[in-house]
Amino acid sequence: MTAPLEVSNVKKTYTSPKLGAVDAVKGVSFEIRPGEIYGLLGPNGAGKTTLISMITTLENPSEGDIKVFGESTQTNSAFTKKQIGVVPQEIVTQGFFNLVEILQFHSGYYGVWNNKERIDYLLKRLGLWEHKHKLVKQLSGGMKRRLMIAKALVHKPKLLLLDEPTAGVDLELRTSLWEFVRDLQKEGISILLTTHYLQEAEALCERVGIISKGSLVFNGETQGIIRKLTRRTVEMDLKSIPNWTLPEGVQLLGQRENRVTFSTPSEMSVGALLAGLSIPSDLLLDLKTREGSLEEAFLNVVQKGASL
Questions:
Q1: In degrees rounded to 5, what are phi and psi of residue 9?
Q2: What is the pLDDT of residues 159-188, one digit of tens each?
Q3: CATH of the domain at 31
Q4: Which of 19, 218, 223, 238 sits most deeply, having the most CB atoms within 10 A of its CB?
């Protein structure tokens, strides 16, 4: 099956009178699988926006190629634009039109006429139905964000690019948008998600790519990078503290009376930890664990330069 998005050794170089040639994107390669939510993560200035601009044909790569459903964005941009829906980070709206008019206009951009059924569905699904006759300038920031998503979906794209879709929205709306994104995935839409909310990427994305200083430093399963670059915290309440020797890779984080906290490699099971510490089961009163997070793994890569 053809990949919805295939980025192959893409490079983007800008020329500055003062700095000369500056590589904003340096040989990036990844693909999105059919029906997948793929997270593209990175700090500000890492090259994410430049990469998205090339995927959406706003810019051309200096080297390499980008294909959308098998067609090069450089040689068949018209096809690309019909297949992609884009929710940009910045809210761009025409404030003096109402919501129905905006979505009718946007349908027309793609040559889609008599699109009432689709427009009505999106307005209802995104909680905008009761506001459909309001001028856009009268909407709250959260409603404008939802309108941007409706605009991106009005022509039924097969590939959706979400650039910080929940930026500046409250927790309730963020949760409902997560649910909506999952529903889109169930409908077979493939999604490229960029976000600064690492919890969001961990919840939604089976695979992620991490871009730093223009280079893709990780591309793989979300849980894989968490296991590789984070540690598990294990807290135990014991009847008494036995003598122990810490197993290899285990750290004692703290002890308060009969409560002890350890840090262990993610791949070490709790059973292996107890056996390694020679703690008999009758001494154990309570045990709690906390797994590492994508945010911890991300910081280890971007800030600490952890090896992958």
A1: 50, 50
A2: 999 998 888 778 888 888 899 999 999 999
A3: 3.40.50.300
A4: 218
